[in-house]
Design goal:
Helix 1 (about 5-30) packs parallel to helix 4 (about 85-105) and helix 4 packs antiparallel against helix 5 (about 110-130). By secondary structure, this protein is mostly helical. The chain contains 5 helices and no strands. The longest helix is centred in the first third of the chain and has 28 residues, at about 5-30. The chain starts with a helix and ends with a helix. The chain has one domain.
Length: about 130
């Protein structure tokens, strides 16, 4: 990152990626449920039946497309982002967004320790960002 504005913009886009990925992960998990019941003796046919199971489910497909749009933004952001910051920002914040989205959808996410851990992750990412800007 050459300047602070470019670095801040890249960090913002990486947060958007984390929101797109983390926000769709619980939906992919929920809408992909039941794929383990798809069985066939031939591995190729098994794969095709699994794809049919997933991609004929419009809720799964919508979540998948939103998730993949996050991958496109991630790829485009790599050109302007400090590579030492890409993984910490996207991976840690994706984890937090996934956890919070799962909680909103009614999943059990744990107790106080989970929230303390999320606070520590956010603090760590903030420290990393402050060091780089």
């Amino acid at each position: 990152m050459e300047d602070n504005d470019g670095g801040s913009l890249a960090a913002l886009w990486l947060v958007v990626v984390a929101i797109l990925w983390g926000g769709t992960n619980p939906f992919l998990k929920r809408e992909g449920a039941g794929i383990e019941s798809v069985k066939h003796k031939n591995a190729v046919v098994q794969f095709l039946f699994e794809m049919k199971h997933l991609f004929l489910n419009w809720k799964y497909l919508l979540a998948f497309l939103i998730n993949q749009s996050g991958s496109v933004v991630y790829y485009l952001t790599l050109a302007s982002a400090d590579l030492s910051m890409v993984a910490p920002i996207t991976n840690s914040l994706t984890f937090i967004v996934t956890t919070l989205t799962g909680k909103i959808l009614g999943e059990r996410i744990g107790g106080t320790e989970t929230y303390i851990g999320m606070g520590l992750v956010i603090s760590g990412v903030t420290i990393c960002l402050m060091d780089k800007t």
